Amino acid sequence: MATPTMLLLLADGRFPAGAHAHSAGLEAAVAAGRVTDLVTLGEYLRGRLATAGLVAAAFAAAARRAAWSNGRRATLAQLDAELDARTASPAQRAVSRRQGRALLRAGREIWPGGSFDELPATSGGPHQPLVLGLVGAAAGLDPAQVAMVAAHATVTGSASAAVRLLGLDPYRVQALLVRLAAACDATAAQAARAAEQPPQRLPAAAAPLADIHAEAHATWEVRLFAS
Amino acid sequence: MRATARLVARADRHGRTTLAELRGESPLLLRQVPGRDGGVTVYVVGGAAGPLAGDDLRLDVEVGPGAVLRVHTVAASIALPGHPGAVSRMLVRATVSEGATLHWLPEQLVAAAGCAHVADSQVDVAEGAILHWRDELICGRHHERPGDAEVNTWVDLDGRPLLRQCLAVGPNAPGWSGPAVLGGAPATGSLLVVDPTRLVEPPVVQQTVARLPLAGGPATLWTATAPDAHTLRALLEPDGGEVPTAPDRITNSAEGEGTEVVRVG
């Protein structure tokens, strides 16, 4: 079991894995006029938690479970292929792998003894949730804690992007996050339970607009965020 | 109500498709109609209202090597509430063998107020087979908030995962109509095309429809949201959809690569 500080370090947006550069689709949702204020931001975050957040948290928890198991190399490769099948948008696949690479760089530096060599050698890098699972293992986090880090990142990443994109009052955005805390915990708990299933049975919650936003965003020449 | 139906298409030695099995029971009745191009067309004829919560329906489809099968439904299916706490289920399992073609192009699923419905599709596609698979979901009848509906699509290509999607709408799906999922659109759907003879084209997005080349093989997913069923259908017509000729597309030849720049909807 990790120390509480270890959990806080991994959940911290200042962990050097480049999370601050991503809005997780929010920049495109704002540009399309779908997120305009605190109310629509709250709806956006609830939808993200129930879809991308649940999937990412379940895959991160599953990778954490695989980290110390026999046959982990095969399980991680299977998780990678299953996550690809849940990510219809090429832009979203590329972003997940880019974020995975960034997190992997940090993980290797911080925990040289981590089991990162077990990750599949896929072009573009491993998916971010898989790396998060192994980073969590190296830090001594259990699968439920890894799921918590992933669910937490789903809401905090887009929320801090919202402050910049919409000029929202940071206090009110933080109050929104406080109101979403229970939903975030519930998503993490659901993901941790789901992660006990074999890779093909993990959640596959989809959101048509997530694919549409990601592909639209990828074509922009000028943007504030990388996703 | 529990019902099962089974449909098996095989190619004879002249390459013509025949039905080796065509068996259904109400409300899953199957009718063969004259097909085209040596293939066979079958309609699923709803023999009762529904599905109603509590119904458990299952359809197995098998397309043998070289056979060509198209499946349609005669009308939209409307998921309705039934016994309190009960869920209606529709499971479609399809196997498409090498050199075979399956067009699964049913009418829409409408999630009526108070429904509790789960639609599962499990498709096994062999390498070299062709699949067109369309799913359309209408959230509520006219000006109606839908009940809970879940559309699960599970496709393997040559034994490997190609597509896993679960779209959930209704009171139990947080944020489903919000800006992260459907953005208030009452109609949504997707068309999956697996076709090794067809060039996989790069992604493109126009308004609320996107063409997405998948990672797991020669396959493309069109995904869309729309204000109504009619508009949605126009976006998801195989070979006749509006996406391939997106007028908003600007070719940026200065890049030398023909980069596509598309305005966000």
UniProtKB/TrEMBL annotation, chain A:
Keywords: Chaperone, Cytoplasm, Nickel insertion. The gene is ureF. Gene3D superfamilies: Urease accessory protein UreF. The keyword Chaperone applies. It comes from the Bacteria. Required for maturation of urease via the functional incorporation of the urease nickel metallocenter. GO terms for cellular component: cytoplasm. UreD, UreF and UreG form a complex that acts as a GTP-hydrolysis-dependent molecular chaperone, activating the urease apoprotein by helping to assemble the nickel containing metallocenter of UreC. The UreE protein probably delivers the nickel. Belongs to the UreF family. One of its GO terms (molecular function) is nickel cation binding. InterPro entries: UreF, UreF_sf. This is Urease accessory protein UreF. It is found in: Cytoplasm. The keyword Chaperone applies. PANTHER family: UREASE ACCESSORY PROTEIN F.
From TrEMBL, chain B:
InterPro entries: UreD. Residues 240-265 are annotated as: Disordered. It comes from the Bacteria. The keyword Chaperone applies. Pfam families: UreD (PF01774). One of its GO terms (cellular component) is cytoplasm. One of its GO terms (molecular function) is nickel cation binding. Its main location: cytoplasm. It is found in: Cytoplasm. Signal peptide: none annotated. Keywords: Chaperone, Cytoplasm, Nickel insertion. HAMAP family: UreD. UreD, UreF and UreG form a complex that acts as a GTP-hydrolysis-dependent molecular chaperone, activating the urease apoprotein by helping to assemble the nickel containing metallocenter of UreC. The UreE protein probably delivers the nickel. Belongs to the UreD family. Required for maturation of urease via the functional incorporation of the urease nickel metallocenter. This is Urease accessory protein UreD. It comes from Micromonospora phaseoli.
